[in-house]
Amino acid sequence: MIAERKRFFAAQRAAEQRSKPPTKTQMSNRMCTYLKNIGGYKHNQLKGKSYEEIQKLFDKTYKQVNSFVPMASDDKEKGSEKKAGGSRKKTLAKNRAGEKQSKESYKRQKMEDDAEKEELRAHLDIIPGDDVAVSVESLATKYPIVYWKTRVLSEDKMYYEIIRANRSTKSYKIFTKMLDDFDRQDVLDLYRLVKERFETTNPEGYDKLLWGDLITVFEPSKDDEVWKAQQDYTLISWRLFDSCGIYVLLMDTGIAIHMLVEKTYPLTQETHSRMLSGKLEVDNESEIAFELLRFTRSQIKK
C-alpha cells in the first residue's frame, strides 16, 4: 500500500513538472543535447558556456539543418539522363534499395538506443527541483562570482558567502548546496578564487571543508584518504547536478564526494556497483544523466 502511494505521488509530481514551462536548466540541457546529437559537438566544447552562447550555437545549427537541400539526387538524375533507359532503371532501383537499407538500419539503431535508454531509466530517480520558469531575456544576465567569505558566527552557525559581480550575495552551508544554483563556470570561478587565497597559506577550520571538496573535484589523488577508505563507507545516495556537470556521492559517515561527469576518479568497482544498485537522483531526464550511467556501468564490467 505504501509503495503504491509512493508511485502515485511520484507520477503526480512528474506530471506537474512536465506541465510547467521549461526552466533555464531544462532549456540549456535540451539545446546541448541537440547540439551533441545533430551538430556533432562534444561535451568539452559546450561545458562552461553561458546560456546565450549555447543559444547562438543552437540557432546556427538549427538553421543549417533546416535550410539544407540534398544535392545527391539531382546529380544522379543528371547523370542518368545520359544513359539508356535500362541503366536509369537499375540506378534508381539501386538507390531505392540503398535508401530502404539505410532507413532500416536507422530504425534498428533507434530501437536499440530506445531500449538502452529504457533500461537506464530504471536507474534514475527524478526529483523535480523548485526552479521557477524564467524568460529567455533574463537568462543571459547571470553575473560571475568575484569573491567569497567564510562566516563563523558560532560553533553551530557557519556558512560560506558567495559574492557576484553585481554585488548580490547568497549564503550556503556546504558546497553541495551551491550546486543547486551553480553552472560550470561558477564552480571554476570559485575554485580559482579559493586556490588563489591558499597559494601561500594552509586553510583552517571551516575553510578546510570547502578546500577539500574542490581539491577532490579538480585535483584528485589516489593517495587521498577519501579514496583509500571507500570500503569503510556505505553509499546512502548519489545525485547529479547537470547544470554544472557534477555528481555527488553521499556516504553514511556524512562524507560527500563531488566529481565531474567527464573525469575519471579512483572509485572501486564495488563503489560503482553500489551506485548502480541504487538510483541516480536527477532534476529531470537528460543525456548527461544517461552518459553518467553508461560510464558507471562500463566501470563495473572492467
TrEMBL record:
Amino acid composition bias (Basic and acidic residues), ranges on this chain: 73-84, 96-114
Disordered: annotated span: 1-27, 70-114
Domain of life, source organism: Eukaryota
The name this protein goes by in its record: Uncharacterized protein
UniProt lineage: Eukaryota, Viridiplantae, Streptophyta, Embryophyta, Tracheophyta
